[in-house]
Design goal:
The complex is a heterodimer of chains A (481) and B (151).
Chain A (H helix, E strand, L loop, with lengths): L47 H5 L8 H13 L10 H28 L8 H13 L3 H7 L2 H20 L15 E10 L5 E4 L2 E16 L7 H7 L8 E7 H8 L3 E8 L2 E4 L1 H12 L17 H13 L3 H6 L7 H14 L9 E12 L2 E13 L2 E8 L2 E6 L2 E5 L1 H6 L8 H17 L2 E7 L2 E5 H15 L2 H11 L1
Chain B lengths: L1 H23 L2 E5 L2 E4 H10 L6 H20 L3 H25 L7 E3 L2 H33 L5
Antiparallel strand pairs in B: 1-2, 1-3
Classes of the chains: A alpha+beta (481), B mainly alpha (151).
Chain lengths: 481, 151
């Protein structure tokens, strides 16, 4: 037998391990004399005995001598610190931080007001519920984002102008529909009757329920001054309540109330414009077309306006629809083929061509306003050239040049019979329109530019309101009597 | 005695912060018959374009309150009291203004009173706790100086 002889492997780093890897001097290097015999070479190592008992060497030095020395020097044992408070405090702190994180996530989720719904019926119900609980904010946020933005922008800007003109009280809130209270109850949609037009448009059918509308003109946010002007004999204190039984109406007309819902960004919204378009198609007894007029925007605001102007002169309604914003007027794109079919053969190109169109752009709420700088149109061999010079427009036709300024336009109004105040109001209005320039508003959708008829119309109205002064409202009211 | 007061201040401050946060989940706005808490209300206002991303700052108040409570629990009462005081003054001012403006039942859209009132009460409580903690420490330091001991 060879080494190690004592059972177990030899550990080179074990200080307690007996040494003899190599034969000791004088010992034969051959195997041991007899198996099972005690190995005599271990005996000559008496130091091994205490070494074997030196387990405390593996412990820290002060521990080895610790107990007797400490007692000998008389040091008292260190006092044990109470850790209960620290543990409880740490536990409370951990719970507080964890709870804070959870609550913050809940709060953040609640602030994500995405009023889209998972299906068309829920979307329609959400709108009707918002109307039913007179939740104006809910109505505005339940509409498709583009429609909501359009109505919101118009409402807020018009309210500010009416406040400036002292028509509305200073504390009037754009979101408040004061004087109108609507309540609904027991509303029921017929899921079996819903009409799936395409993958993003579904018409839901409201078949039962009650609506109660309470209106009170005295709660409208008009100033006393305006009410005195508008109603010199006293404002009518009309508080009316109207109850509508939808079930009876549906039975009578045999037609449920249709609410169009659209899918935007994977969620369903009730759409005001689609609902209007749906009723228009119903009146015309036309179904929704299978394929829409695809949106094809322009590269810039100016190009979009030029495209619409060219298409209008060429009686190309399809191109006009293509240049309408697909988010705001998706209903027009979807119903477009019916319109094209309806006017087919009824319109002819004018023959006029725009040979030059230069525009200026300015940023307005929700889009970019494009105003005319220079225009040249050729028709029947004749050329008309219009250029804006300051607050005036200069027109040239047949070699003759005329200039039209705000002051010139005002002279045409009313004659001598018009009260001075009313004339002043019209002067302000005309000057404002000439100074700001009439234009169209374009919007950008997915990197392409489109002409927004709704925003363009509202911009004209707002430009007119911005041109007036508070005294003009009074003058116009008196002049109107 | 001062230790007791110190802990009482921390407890009052932490409780105030909990009430403050709880109040933000109660109704803050009313639109028709629909009530919304402060986060939903700010979300609607952001959706309608009236405000920017204020809601994120408002939500950040929750983790700040949580960390402040944790500091109270860990015994870092002075630091916690300072943060609690700042937080309660800011939030309390906002909720106080909202509470005063609210409760106009005549309007279709308005500010609800329960949320702002609760948050204001919570802010007051948190501020009280912070003041107790800060005042207690000052008293103790002053007493130690008077006695000649090290602060």
């Amino acid at each position: 037998m060879t080494y190690p002889p004592q059972g177990g492997q030899w550990q080179p780093n074990d200080p307690n391990q007996q040494y003899p890897q190599q034969p000791y001097p004088g010992q034969p290097s051959v195997p041991f004399p007899a198996q099972g015999q005690q190995y005599p070479q271990q005996q000559p190592y008496p130091q091994q005995q205490p070494y074997q008992q030196q387990q405390p060497y593996q412990q820290p030095m002060y521990d080895q001598y610790g107990q007797p020395m400490q007692q000998g020097y008389g040091y008292p044992p260190p006092p044990k610190r109470k850790r209960t408070g620290l543990i409880v405090g740490s536990a409370i702190a951990a719970v507080a931080v964890a709870a804070g994180a959870v609550v913050a996530v809940v709060a953040l989720n609640q602030s994500q007001v995405n009023e889209g719904s998972a299906n068309p019926q829920d979307a329609a119900l959400k709108l009707v519920s918002a109307v039913g609980s007179a939740d104006v904010a809910g109505v505005l946020t339940s509409l498709p984002p583009a429609e909501s933005a359009l109505l919101r922008d118009l409402n807020s800007q018009a309210t500010e102008e009416f406040k400036r003109l002292e028509v509305y009280k200073k504390d009037a809130d754009p979101d408040k529909v004061a004087g109108l209270d609507i309540k609904t109850s027991n509303l029921r949609f017929d899921d079996a009757q819903k009409q799936e037009v395409n993958d993003h448009l579904t018409i839901t059918k409201l078949v039962d329920g009650q609506i109660e509308v309470n209106s009170d003109l005295s709660k409208l946010p008009f100033t006393d001054k305006f009410l005195d002007m508008a109603f010199p004999k006293g404002a009518p204190s009309t508080s009316k309540t109207q109850k509508i039984d939808i079930g009876k109406q549906v039975q009578r007309s045999k037609k449920p109330i249709r609410i169009a819902t659209v899918k935007v960004g994977g969620e369903w919204y009730p759409s005001l414009f689609y609902t209007i378009a749906d009723y228009a198609l119903q009146d015309a007894k036309k179904p929704w077309p299978k394929t829409p007029v695809a949106a094809k925007g322009a590269g810039s605001p100016g190009e979009a306006v030029r495209g619409v102007a060219d298409a209008a002169l060429d009686a190309d309604l399809e191109r006009v629809i293509e240049l309408m914003p697909p988010d705001e007027l998706g209903a027009l794109h979807d119903a477009g083929p019916v319109l094209l079919q309806a006017i087919a053969g009824r319109t002819k190109p004018t023959g006029a061509k725009i040979t030059k169109l230069e525009t200026d752009t300015s940023s307005v709420t929700g889009g970019t306003k494009v105003t005319l700088r220079e225009l040249e149109v050729t028709a029947d061999g004749e050329t008309v050239h219009i250029v804006r010079k300051g607050d005036c427009y200069e027109g040239t036709a047949d070699g003759k040049t005329d200039q039209l300024c705000a002051a010139d336009a005002v002279k045409e109004f009313g004659g001598k019979k018009m009260p001075a105040g009313a004339k002043q109001a019209l002067t302000h209005l005309t000057e404002g329109l000439f100074k700001n320039g009439l234009g169209v508003v374009t919007t950008e959708v997915d990197g392409k530019w489109y002409v927004s008829p709704g925003r363009s119309f509202f911009e004209v109205v707002l430009t007119a309101l911005r041109s007036l002064q508070p005294s003009d409202i009074e003058a116009l009211a008196k002049g109107g009597r | 005695m001062s230790g007791m007061r110190k802990w009482m201040g921390a407890a009052v401050g932490a409780a105030g912060l909990v009430v403050l946060v709880a109040g933000t989940f109660l109704p803050w706005s009313r639109s028709g018959m629909t009530y919304r808490d402060s986060y939903e209300s700010l979300g609607v206002l952001r959706e309608l374009g009236f405000i920017g991303n204020v809601v994120t700052v408002w939500v950040a108040m929750i983790p700040v309150a949580a960390v402040t409570i944790a500091l109270f629990a860990l015994g870092l009462r002075r630091s916690a009291a300072i943060v609690a005081a700042i937080l309660s003054i800011i939030v309390g001012t906002i909720s106080g203004v909202a509470a005063v403006q609210g409760a106009d039942e005549g309007d279709l859209i308005g500010i609800a009173s329960s949320g702002p009132a609760t948050t204001t009460a919570g802010s007051a409580l948190a501020l009280l706790g912070a003041v107790i903690v800060l005042a207690t420490r000052r008293t103790r330091v002053a007493q130690q100086r008077t006695a000649g001991g090290e602060p």
